[in-house]
TrEMBL record:
Residues 1-145 form the N-acetyltransferase domain. It comes from Brachybacterium conglomeratum. It holds the Pfam family Acetyltransf_3. This is N-acetyltransferase. PROSITE patterns: GNAT (PS51186). InterPro entries: Acyl_CoA_acyltransferase, GNAT_dom, Ribosomal_N-acetyltransferase. Transmembrane segments: none annotated. PANTHER family: RIBOSOMAL-PROTEIN-SERINE ACETYLTRANSFERASE. Signal peptide: none annotated. SUPFAM superfamilies: Acyl-CoA N-acyltransferases (Nat).
Amino acid sequence: MWPWYRLPEVQEWTTTLSPTLADHQEWWDRTLDTCVVGLQDGRIVAAGKIERQDAWSQADMREQAAGQQAEIGWVLDPAVQGRGLGTAFAAALRDVAVDGLGVRRVEASCFAENLASRRVMEKIGMRLEGTFREESLHRSGRWLDGMSYAQLASEVR
């Protein structure tokens, strides 16, 4: 995935900047336990994460809240964008979180200016839960609005 992951149009919205192949490999090795890839014709065209998290709770309910939600995220090779693959991949990440991990809630976040990610979240049935004014520092040096989407497992089924 390095040939497309390093492209400026991909790096515009990713959380991790990998300036070299070695940096990218190091990041990949550190995050393998939460990573999922999408293949097309034997080539990685999508990468995503499913990160299980504890739900917020009162102190005496922490044990019951442990691992009850997940955050998903994804990035797609620009060469395959616009064909519905991002939507299918994001839906698959959500479904693995709900059906495979058994979480009760799935969340995803993006910069408000990342219209493609917002559309994907809306297409798979996630609802906008919050827009946060200038809460995200972009590598451009600008403070951008962030958006948070979520979906309950009961809404997926």
